[in-house]
Design brief:
By secondary structure, the protein is an alpha/beta fold. The chain folds into two domains: 3-76, Orthogonal Bundle (Arc Repressor Mutant, subunit A), CATH 1.10.10.10; 80-262, Rossmann fold. It is 48% helix and 16% strand. It is built from twelve helices and seven strands. A five-stranded parallel sheet has the order 3-2-4-5-6. It has a two-stranded antiparallel sheet with strand order 1-7. Helix 1 crosses helix 2 (19-29) and helix 3 crosses helix 4 (50-56). The longest helix has 19 residues, at 233-251. It is globular and about 55 Å long.
């Protein structure tokens, strides 16, 4: 398991307002500078005693304390402290070179970016193989104070609390490019590991589907038009994530020289 994913799970399962909740939340919101942060700073920001913060990094499967956590984090992220402006250039270059794999309309990218930036919580749900593609976008949204997280389909049942707290100003994007909207809903409603969490969602839902149908809420369904070869869909998702990051970065009020983690 990724160490960041471990912290995410702690955040999701901790009692609201508890020390574990506050510390995990602070870590996720400041992930891009944790290699330079101190225990004292974390304690001050979270209002917790330094001993409590220190204990946090020695428990929950994080042996070795805070220094070991920082080393693990550096290992988990291949490139760190990359300027946002530089990453935007890389994303644009990727989109240009892989233009043939662009599977989502530009206007839909803009609409989805606006929805993400106007939310307090933006949860992305999809298959495990797409998770790494969206991590940099997720960290950027967190820089803006938006809690963002990628939830694999297999973890939907255990992420029920995240959905239960998704109110009208919180958005959920479902990445199901291999299904039509009807197929996705059928799978969700018929599979126990999906249904309980799915029914808890009260926030605004968005769907990225390969096909649409009359029963779909057309205003929030984005059509994914990939190549005929399913093995190439991951390339289309890379372009989609790059375009979405670029659009969010162009709208977000963050200094372009600020660093961001890139997995």
């Amino acid at each position: 398991m990724y160490i960041v994913e471990h912290i995410e799970n702690l955040y999701a399962s901790a009692k609201y307002g508890s020390a574990d909740y506050e510390i995990a939340c602070f870590l996720l919101m400041n992930i891009e500078r944790l290699d330079r942060i101190t225990l004292t700073e974390i304690a001050k920001a979270t209002g917790c005693p330094k001993s409590t913060v220190s204990a946090f990094f020695s428990a929950y499967g994080l042996p070795g304390g805070f220094s070991a956590f920082q080393r693990s984090l550096q290992t988990e992220f291949g490139v760190k402290n990359l300027a946002i402006s530089r990453h935007v250039e890389m994303c644009r270059s990727l989109s240009e070179k892989m233009h043939a794999f662009r599977a989502v309309d530009e206007n839909d990218i803009k609409r989805l970016a606006a929805a993400a930036l106007n939310s307090d919580k933006f949860l992305i749900v999809g298959t495990v193989r797409y998770r790494d593609i969206f991590y940099t976008l997720i960290y950027y949204l967190r820089l803006l104070g938006i809690y963002a997280r990628y939830i694999p389909n297999s973890d939907l049942n255990t992420a029920g609390d995240l959905f239960e707290t998704a109110t009208a100003d919180k958005k959920i994007l479902f990445l199901v490019p291999s299904d039509s909207y009807t197929e996705f809903v059928y799978k969700t409603e018929s599979a126990p590991q999906f249904s309980d969490s799915y029914r808890k969602i009260r926030g605004e839902r968005y769907y990225l589907c390969r096909a649409n149908d009359p029963s779909a809420p057309k205003e929030n369904v984005f059509l994914f038009n990939p190549a005929s070869n399913p093995y190439e869909w991951i390339l289309s998702m890379m372009v989609f994530s790059a375009d979405l990051f670029t659009e969010c970065a162009s709208r977000g009020n963050i200094e372009s020289a600020r660093s961001i983690y890139v997995l």
